[in-house]
Design brief:
The chain is of the alpha+beta class. The chain has one domain. The protein has one helix and four strands, in the order E-E-E-E-H. It has a four-stranded antiparallel beta sheet. The two termini are 23 Å apart.
Length: 87
């Protein structure tokens, strides 16, 4: 799920800040959240996201944790509602 936190007009375009969240069900379920910035210009759009806390005792575990976070964040983005963006 994506929730709009803020938007602003920048020279040449717009910047939208969202919270992306994905929750796992059940009594021991967890919610993963991260901030995503979407930039929109007349000729280009792009996203930026900083993912934290993907460390581990070795590189395999750190990469495995990053992969799990990316999968869950992708699910949160895919579950977004379509919204029209005022231009």
């Amino acid at each position: 799920m994506m929730t709009l936190l803020n938007f602003e007009s920048l020279p040449g375009g717009l910047k939208f800040e969202y919270e992306v969240a994905h929750a796992t069900p059940g009594p021991e379920g967890t919610t993963l959240k991260a901030n995503l910035c979407l930039y929109i210009r007349a000729d280009q759009s792009w996203c930026e996201m900083k993912i934290e806390d993907c460390d581990g005792p070795n590189q395999k575990e750190a990469l495995d944790r990053m992969a799990a976070w990316l999968r869950r964040l992708a699910e949160g983005i895919e579950q977004r509602r379509e919204t029209s963006i005022p231009m």
